[in-house]
Give the backbone structure.
Amino acid sequence: MTAKKKNAQDLMHNIKTIGIVGAGQMGKGIAQVAAQSGYEVVVVSTSNEEMMQKARGEIDASLERAVEIGKINKKEKDKIAARLKFSRELKSLDKSDIVIESVVENIGVKQDIFSNLDKICPPHCILTTNTSSVSISKLAKATQRPDKVIGMHFMYPAQKMKLLEIVKTPATSEETYQMVKRLALKMGKTPITVADRPCFVTSRLIQTLINEAIFCLYEGVSTKEEIDSALKLGMNHPMGPLELADFIGLDVVLSMQEALYNGFKEPKYRPCPLLASLVELGHLGRKTGRGFYNYK
């Protein structure tokens, strides 16, 4: 074992508190995973009180389901719930050892959060992001600790999916990487290591599939139902690519596809015009009631 790896292993014992910024679908799932792994967790939602209370209730319901199916007992559930704290203020993360940011996929918003976290969090604190498309290097530049900035891209739902992408930048220290890798393993995840390239690995692959499926529909190759059936019945996907796009949100899908296209400057990543048109019309998928499919 190298000295850096041993040092990272020793420091792991000092990780007591994990901060989570964002209480949406991913944030609340990551918070539950962290609390179930034995850490004190502070969840910060600066958007609104309603979202924070909703996250609290949904985490409790998720833990209750785990009790019902025998994965944990009632005593364990109460201990996990007691480790979770909620706040509306970023300054509540001033005792965090690691912070995982999980807010909207907007580089400006994320850079602002990282800049503030850099001032609030103690010097040893590692700042991570759950982004699926934003450059980790650009977030690191918003701080005075680029060696302690790294990506932790959880899959949805975070409570169930085993994979976790660890995204390193050229400035990320080996110690930071080793600590985050050990944290991922303690959380029960299987980490893969990827470079800081547009959309990393998982998002790059799924985005390419979704965009090509939209082109198939746009070009009249087949109907939306048949395109989705092809992937579900022919390749054993749990959800068709157009259904998945609606589930993710077509605005998010377009944003990630544009990140690929702008990042690589390759024509093969050009967003399908049909996708852009639907977003322009406000047909964003499940969250608006209409996308490739109608949900009203």
In short: The chain has a mean pLDDT of 94. The radius of gyration is 20 Å.
